[in-house]
Amino acid sequence: PRDIDIAPDGHVYVLDDARQELVELSPTLERLGVVGSGYGDAYAVDISPNGEHIFVTDRSDDRVHHYVRGN
Question: DSSP of 4-70, one letter per residue?
């Protein structure tokens, strides 16, 4: 993995640079699914302090991808 972040509720978000996808894990590290994929060169994942928003930086196109948790 390239980067990880942990939400306030314990969910773990792993940025997999080999697959170029963001994976969500439960607090017990069970894989729950893919949040986003298809990045060119994903570099970092950050979760907002309230845990509602996820941000992934992608250096290939100079973008920040934004996801709202629970949607």
Answer: EEE-TTS-EEEEETTTTEEEEE-TT--EEEEEEE--SSEEEEEE-TTS-EEEEEETTTTEEEEEETT
